[in-house]
Amino acid sequence: MSIITMKFGGTSVGSPEAIQNVVKIVAESTAQGHKVVVVVSAMSGITDSLLESIRMAAQGDRWGYRSLSDKMRDRHDETINRLMKPSPAREETLKHTHKLLDQHRELCDAVTILGDATPRVIDHAVTFGERMSSRIVAAAMIEHGIPAKAFDAGKLLITDDVHQNATPQWDVIQHRIAERLIPEIEQGVIPVITGFIGATPDGVYTTLGRGGSDYSAAIFAAYVNSDEFIVWTDVDGVMTTDPRIDKRARVLPSVSYQEVGEMAFYGAKVLHPKTVQPIINKGIPIYVRNTFNPSHPGTLISHESQETNTVIKAVTCVGNISLLTVSGAGMLGVPGIAGRAFLATAQAGANILMISQASSEQSFCYSVLGNQAQAVKAAVENELSTEIAQQNVDGVHIRDDVGIVTVIGAGMRGIPGVAGRVFTRMGDERVNVLAIAQGASECSISFVVAHSDLHPATVALHDLALSSY
Fold first, then answer.
1. How many whole angstroms separate alpha carbon 243 and alpha carbon 104?
2. What is the bridge-based pairing of β-strands 3-8 and 35-40?
3. CA atoms of 266 and 346, how far apart (whole Å)
4. Does 109 score more than 70 pLDDT?
């Protein structure tokens, strides 16, 4: 008997009708003899409302956060009342939701008094969304005869204490799941687990970063030894590009773990970038499917793509990027300049998205998120202050309002002429390339371009991807 872990995103649990689809999908799977583990996000928009409430509270806007709280209460109440018939179970579900929203309002009251919200407080605030949705989805399943039970991932997914981007503590998680979750699954219970959230060993709530429900669901899939992991979302699968940019985008029948990891890192919205990390060593196949079109087969993600003859498989883009350049004639032959700059970047709390270095060693550039650029510039200039004072380094120069477009495909590996075709197409579209980087795996080539060129470049390179099929 196989175990299937299913993750349902915010839109998949965002309305009574959507939750009814979830119940139907789970019921059909259990009817086929599968054991099912469910991981849910908050209802669509609720995490944003919870964050906005905390922001209002920090600014002393009591009316604002209380108004938002009332709207969240009304939405959850309507969802529960439409999913469940009048009964003690419905009243208990309503009572539980009201209790959580009351706790959130009390948290906002405390933030108003303090005038500030720490990362720890923010993490606690956003957990209420998943804690409400998991209880509602479980109740809806029970209403239809499915033996479901809501689980708080804070009791299972133990992390360090780095709030808003916590790191899982793998050994502890494995022990907790083996002790508290697997026995329930073996008894036929359908766990409905909160996505996105974890907790420190002391029980203080943490989160895995925005979009971390995919990541947390993958962790559960790995440690309950799932045979399949299905990410249910509101699109038919992983697309060749963002359909909002090019309507010709099509669903990819299959991609490799490596390819989807590159796609997620460089802007594809279907999966959290870390999702494949817990899965890959166990070789668990991932399917991306549409809650609202469940008959569509979706996309299979596994070790090897089934489309080995496809050279360029997908094109992604990400905007709001800044390009930082460190240059100076005195850098030639001096070891450690780049390493120190990258360390300072990390200490400033920024991730480097791509790196390009001149062979002369007199300059290198790298990209970070636009809202991190000034902090990174200050950190790097402080680290290299001696070299700047000695005029060996000219300083750190920022170019804002750029983006990264990336072509992805394991089929590019070892195939001559692919880069040439890509460069030619960029030239044909008169796109000025500011920086280039190719992964050592030869699975991707990334370009930094002006933001105004981002969409035209994406469409042009998507033409190449479509011609590969």
1. 37
2. parallel
3. 19
4. yes
CA 224 to each of CA 138, 191, 371: distance values in angstroms, whole numbers, following the listed order: 19, 11, 39
Which of 234, 252, 275 finishes a domain?
Answer: 234
Tokens 């039970």 identify what position? Answer: 149
Q: Please say if the pLDDT value at position 304 is more than 90.
A: no
Cα atoms in the Cβ-side hemisphere of radius 13 Å centred on 441? 13
What pLDDT is recorded for position 250? Answer: 94
Question: Which pLDDT value is given to residue 246?
Answer: 94
At residue 267, the pLDDT reads 74
Q: Which domain holds residue 134?
A: 3-234
Are the C-beta atoms of 196 and 216 separated by less than 8 Å? yes
The full DSSP string for 335-347 is TTHHHHHHHHHHH
CA 324 to chain centroid = 25
Quote the number of domains for the chain: 2
Other C-beta atoms lying within 10 Å of the C-beta of residue 204: 15
Q: Euclidean distance between the first and final Cα of the chain, in Å?
A: 37
pTM for the full predicted model = 0.91
Which residues on neighbouring strands pair with residue 407, listed in sequence order?
315, 445
Please identify, among 170, 199, 234, the residue that sits at the C-terminal boundary of a domain: 234
Question: Of 83, 47, 28, 44, nearest to 234 (Cα)?
Answer: 44
**Gyration radius of the chain's alpha carbons:** 24
d(CA 56, CA 44): 20
Give me the phi and psi of 363, to 5 degrees please.
Answer: -165, 155
253-297 residue pLDDT tens: 999 998 888 888 777 777 877 899 899 989 999 999 999 999 999
pLDDT digits (tens, 9 = 90+) for 419-465: 888 889 999 999 999 999 987 667 889 999 999 999 999 999 999 88
Distance CA 9, CA 89 (A): 25
